[in-house]
Specification:
The complex is a heterodimer of chains A (about 300) and B (about 400). Helix content of chain A is about 75%, strand content about 0%. With about 300 residues, chain A is mostly helical. Chain A has a two-stranded antiparallel sheet. Chain B starts with a helix and ends in a 6-residue tail after the last strand. Chain B has a seven-stranded mixed β-sheet with strand order 7-6-8-9-10-11-12, sandwiched between helices. Chain B has a three-stranded parallel β-sheet with strand order 3-4-5. In chain B, strands 1-2 form a two-stranded parallel ribbon. Chain B is about 45% helix and about 15% strand. Chain B has 13 helices and twelve strands. The chains are: A mainly alpha (about 300), B alpha/beta (about 400). The interface of A and B includes residues 125 and 222 of A. Chain A: InterPro entries: ABC_transp_permease (IPR001851), BCAA_transport_permease (IPR052157). Chain A: GO terms for molecular function: transmembrane transporter activity. Chain A: It comes from Enhydrobacter aerosaccus.
Chain lengths: ~300, ~400
C-alpha cells in the first residue's frame, strides 16, 4: 500500500502545489508588509486573473499563445489594482480615520462580495477552462499536466524576479524601507502613497498571476478564489506575516502536509491538516516561522 | 394625533380591500430552491430553473389553476449549502407564502430543508437529490421524483456485472450524496460478492485531488466511480487523465453532468470513454406533455432538454394537476391528493407518490440509464445505452 513510488509521487505533488500556494500567499503578505492592511479580496483578484487568461486564450490569442496571455492577465490585474487602490484604499490612507484597519477590512470585504457577484452576473455561474496544448510530462515517476508544470516554473521565476527586484533595485529598496517605517521614508522625501499604490498593484498582480497560471488546472468560475484566500492566510500565519521567504517555505510545507495527510492518514480531512499546522505554529511560535515580534514603545 | 388616526384608518382599509379581493385574482406562489452559484452545481440548478420557468408559463398560458389563478415562481439560490437551503425555504414559506417548494439538486440541502418543512407544513419535491434519507424518514411533506441511492447503485452493479469488473474504486465527496452512494455501493458489492471495493473520500472545497487519485491508481482498479458533483467531478476527470488513470481505466460519473452541453467544452480531449448515469435519453419515450416541452425548449434554448429541465417542468405540471384535483392550495389537501392520485409528467408513464415502504415513500423513480461516450465530442443523443434499470415496484 505505502509503496516508495507512492511516497515519491506524493512528495512531488506536495512540493508543486506548495510553490503555487506560496505565490497565492505572497500578495497578501507583501501588501501587509507595506501598507499594514489585510486585503480580504485577494482571492477575487486571483479569480479575475483566471477569467482574463480564459478570455485571452479562448477568444483572442488561442491556446498556442497561452504563455503570452499570462503576463497580459497579470498586467490587467495590476492595472485594475491601481484603480481599486486609487478609488477605495487611498482615501483611507490619505486622511486616516481612527480605525484605519477596520475601514480597510470592511472595504476589502465589500469588494470581495461585489467582484464575486459581478463575475456571476457577467459570466454566469458555469465553469470554464482555457484548455492547454501542453503535453503531459514526467516529473520523476510522476506524470503531470504540462500546464501544471508550466505554472510551477512560471511561479518559481516570478518569485525569483520579485525577490530580485525587492533586493537589488532602488524601487525595491524604497519598498523595503516603507515596510520598516512609513514615517521614515516620508522624511526622506519618498511619496509613500505612491509606494502604496504600486505595492497594492504588485500584490494583487501576484494573485492574478496565480489565477492565470492555474486557470487550465483548477478551472475558472466565480468563487475559485475562495480557496486561494484560505490557503493564503494559512501560509501567512505559518510563514510569518510580512516574510517573503516565510511564504515560500510555508507554502511548500502546507502542500506537503496536505498531500501526505491525504495520501497516508485520511483523504477526507485534507483541509484539516493545514489548520492543524496553523494551530501548532500559533501555540509554539505565534509570529510564524519567519515573522518578527512587533516592537511597542 | 388626527394624522395618525387617518393613516391607521387608511391602513385598515387597504388591508380589508386586499383580503376582499376575489380569490381568482390572487397568484399562487411556487418556490424553487436550486443551486445557482458555487460551491453548489449551478449548471444543474440553472437547468431545473429553465424547466420550472417554462412549466409556470405553460400552466399560466393554459388558463392557470382553480379556474383562472396564475402561478408565480419565486426562485432561491441554495448555493449547494444546507444552511442556505433552510433559510431559502423559510423565506419562501414565511414571506412569499408559497404553497409548494420543488427543486433541490444537492441531497444535503434537501435533507436540511425537509427537517424544517415537516414543521412548517409546506411540501417539498426533490427533483435531483438522491440520498435515501430524503424519503426514508417518511415525512408527510417530503416528495421526490428522482432516483434514490439504491437504484443508482443497482444500476452501477448492472454495468459491473455486464463488463466483468472486479476491482472498483470510488472517489467520493464528503456530502450526504457522496457518502450515501459510496456506502450503498459497499453494501451492494458485499451482496454481489467477489468484488474488491476501495473508498476514497474528499472534501468538496479541495481543488488538488492528486493525492487521492494517486491512491486510486495504486489500487489498480478495473472501474473508477466518480462521485463528485459540479466542479469536483470535472477536476477528477482532468486530474485522473494527468496521472494516467484515464483513459486506461474506465470511469463512470455518478450523475448526468456529461449530458450537459458544457461537458465537451471542458473535456474536449478526455471525455471520450466516460460512462455516466442518466435518467433520460432522447430514446426514452415521452408523454404528450414531455414532447411539447421538448419542442418548446429546443426552440427557446437551441439545444435539447436534459433531465434536470424535464424534471423542473414536470414538477410544475404535477403541482398544477394536484391543486386542481384537490380544489385547494391547502398543504394537507395537496399532500393527500398527491398520495392517492395519478399524475402526468414528462415520461410516458403514470407518476404516483404512494405511502410506500422504505425509501420509496412519496417517491416516483424514473428509469436509470448508463450511457457511454464512445467517441470524442459525441452528441449525448448518440451515446451508447449500456444499461437501463427500473426500480422494483414500490410496496
Amino acid at each position: 500500500m505505502f509503496s516508495t513510488e507512492l511516497v515519491v509521487q506524493t512528495f512531488i505533488s506536495g512540493v508543486m502545489i506548495g510553490v503555487l500556494y506560496a505565490l497565492m500567499a505572497l500578495g497578501i503578505t507583501f501588501i501587509y508588509s507595506i501598507m499594514r492592511m489585510i486585503n480580504w479580496a485577494m482571492g477575487e483578484f486571483y479569480m479575475i486573473g483566471s477569467y482574463l487568461q480564459y478570455m485571452l486564450v479562448a477568444f483572442l490569442l488561442g491556446p498556442d499563445l497561452w504563455w503570452l496571455a499570462i503576463p497580459i492577465s497579470a498586467a490587467g490585474v495590476f492595472a485594475f489594482g491601481l484603480v481599486v487602490q486609487w478609488g477605495l484604499i487611498k482615501p483611507i490612507f490619505k486622511k486616516p480615520p481612527e480605525a484605519r484597519d477596520d475601514y480597510a477590512t470592511v472595504v476589502t470585504l465589500a469588494l470581495l462580495l461585489l467582484l464575486r457577484s459581478l463575475a456571476t452576473g457577467l459570466a454566469g455561474p458555469n465553469q470554464f477552462t482555457p484548455g492547454s496544448n501542453l503535453p503531459i510530462v514526467m516529473v520523476g515517476p510522476m506524470p503531470m499536466a504540462g500546464a501544471r508544470v508550466a505554472a510551477f516554473v512560471f511561479a518559481l521565476v516570478a518569485l525569483a524576479l520579485f525577490y530580485g527586484v525587492l533586493r537589488y533595485s532602488w524601487y525595491g529598496l524604497a519598498l523595503r524601507a516603507t515596510s520598516q517605517s512609513r514615517v521614515g521614508v516620508q522624511t526622506a522625501g519618498i511619496d509613500v502613497l505612491g509606494i502604496d499604490r504600486v505595492a497594492f498593484g504588485i500584490g494583487v498582480a501576484l494573485a492574478g498571476l496565480a489565477g492565470a497560471l492555474l486557470a487550465p488546472v483548477f478551472l475558472v468560475f466565480p468563487t475559485n478564489g475562495l480557496i486561494t484566500t484560505v490557503k493564503g492566510f494559512e501560509i501567512v500565519v505559518i510563514g510569518g506575516l510580512g516574510s517573503i521567504p516565510g511564504a515560500l517555505i510555508a507554502g511548500i510545507l502546507l502542500g506537503l502536509i496536505e498531500s501526505f495527510g491525504a495520501a497516508f492518514i485520511d483523504s477526507a480531512y485534507q483541509n484539516i491538516y493545514g489548520f492543524a499546522l496553523v494551530l501548532l505554529i500559533l501555540a509554539f511560535k505565534p509570529t510564524g516561522l519567519f515573522g518578527e515580534r512587533g516592537r511597542e514603545a | 394625533m388626527r394624522k395618525q388616526g387617518f393613516f391607521l384608518a387608511a391602513a385598515v382599509a387597504a388591508a380589508l380591500s386586499a383580503t376582499c379581493l376575489p380569490v381568482q385574482a390572487q397568484d399562487i406562489g411556487i418556490g424553487l430552491i436550486v443551486p445557482l452559484s458555487p460551491p453548489g452545481d449551478p449548471t444543474g440548478g440553472q437547468l431545473i430553473r429553465r424547466g420550472a420557468e417554462m412549466g409556470i408559463d405553460a400552466v399560466n398560458n393554459a388558463g392557470g389553476v382553480l379556474g383562472g389563478r396564475k402561478f408565480k415562481l419565486y426562485v432561491e439560490d441554495s448555493q449547494g449549502k444546507p444552511e442556505a437551503g433552510v433559510a431559502a425555504y423559510r423565506r419562501l414559506v414565511s414571506e412569499d407564502k408559497v404553497v409548494f417548494v420543488p427543486g433541490f439538486f444537492h441531497s444535503s440541502v434537501a435533507i436540511a430543508a425537509n427537517e424544517v418543512a415537516k414543521d412548517m407544513g409546506v411540501p417539498t419535491m426533490s427533483l435531483q437529490a438522491s440520498a435515501a434519507e430524503i424519503t426514508s424518514k417518511h415525512y408527510e411533506t417530503a416528495f421526490r421524483t428522482h432516483a434514490v441511492d439504491q437504484v443508482r447503485v443497482a444500476t452501477f452493479m448492472e454495468l459491473i456485472k455486464k463488463k466483468g469488473f472486479k476491482r472498483i474504486s470510488m472517489i467520493a465527496e464528503t456530502t450526504d450524496y457522496g457518502i450515501g452512494i459510496a456506502d450503498e455501493t459497499i453494501a451492494q458489492a458485499k451482496k454481489v460478492g467477489g468484488l474488491e471495493v476501495q473508498k476514497i473520500a474528499f472534501d468538496r472545497s479541495v481543488t488538488d485531488l492528486t493525492p487521492q487519485l494517486l491512491q486510486v491508481k495504486a489500487f489498480k482498479p478495473d472501474l473508477v466511480i466518480n462521485i463528485g458533483v459540479g466542479q469536483p467531478c470535472d477536476l477528477i476527470i482532468d486530474q485522473a487523465t494527468t496521472i494516467g488513470l484515464l483513459p486506461n481505466t474506465p470511469m463512470i460519473v455518478s450523475y448526468d453532468a456529461p449530458a450537459r452541453p458544457q461537458f465537451w467544452k471542458l473535456h474536449e480531449k478526455n471525455g471520450a470513454g466516460i460512462y455516466f448515469i442518466a435518467y433520460y435519453s432522447p430514446k426514452t419515450p415521452l408523454s404528450d406533455i414531455g414532447k411539447s416541452f421538448a419542442a418548446a425548449y429546443t426552440e427557446k434554448y437551441k439545444e435539447d432538454p436534459v433531465y434536470g429541465a424535464l424534471n423542473g417542468y414536470g414538477a410544475i405540471q404535477i403541482i398544477a394537476q394536484a391543486i386542481n384535483a384537490a380544489k385547494s392550495t391547502d398543504s394537507k389537501a395537496l399532500i393527500k391528493t398527491l398520495e392517492t392520485g395519478t399524475f402526468k409528467s414528462w415520461p410516458d408513464a403514470p407518476v404516483t407518490f404512494p405511502r410506500a415502504e422504505g425509501v420509496y415513500w412519496h417517491n416516483w423513480v424514473p428509469p436509470v440509464l448508463i450511457l457511454h461516450y464512445t467517441k470524442p465530442m459525441q452528441d449525448w443523443k448518440d451515446a451508447e445505452v449500456e444499461v437501463q434499470y427500473s426500480a422494483p415496484a414500490a410496496k
